[in-house]
Model the fold of this input.
Amino acid sequence: MALPAALTPLVDLVFPPRCPLCGEALAEQGGLCVGCWSGLAIPGEPSCAKCQRPLGAAAEGGGMVCAVCMAHPPRHGGIYSATLYNDTSRKLVLAFKHGRRIGLAPLLARLVATRIPPLEGDWLLVPVPLHRWRLWARAFNQSALLAREIARLTGQHLLVDGLVRSRRTPTLGGLGRAARARTLAGAIAANPARSRELRGARVLLVDDVLTSGATSDACIAALRRAGAGEVRIACFSRVLDEALDDAGPGRDAGFHTG
Done:
């Protein structure tokens, strides 16, 4: 929630504005310094018409589909990612999720919201769920905090408990696509208490980081079983190492920093 304008000078006096990553002094609260801003990799164009994966400067024309989507057609209607996952975005995610810096939620959500095109009609913002034990240990669901802020910025409706994670799953790191799917099988389901809201709804699934897509695929499958219509994905950061690798030092390969 934004502070009343009259209180801003007092807050700045007690808590001088500083970059949440490096501690450099800022002109106002809620942002990053120039150096840290420049470290963020923002997905650019041209990109895949289905998943918005950057295609590189050599791609020409619109409507092109990446090799990944041709091999495995996605069930979602699009991905809106604020950043590509690199060292700077990783530090922000770690500070937010594991460092319990929940005050970063508005900043991260603003970055995501700028990537989301105007949504026609009514949409439900549904966060990727945490298992109750993990939620109790962490005390918050980072995806739910992002979804709440994005809902406020877009004027759409938040359905914070649209999905539930009935089984705690181990980390998916190091597992292949098939193994990830097996690990998540049956772990995520639509909340029966929200069946009426989900039936026929257009859903924006919100997560902090999109890696292999196994978790989002499980969420989309659960939403489809509940009768949801179109499902799109919004996230703060997306792991696409090939996009970063293609760029190299000082080069542009379908993304820009800023």
Residues 43-257 form a domain with the Rossmann fold fold (CATH 3.40.50.2020). The first helix runs from residue 8 to 14. The CA atoms of residues 66 and 72 lie 10 Å apart.
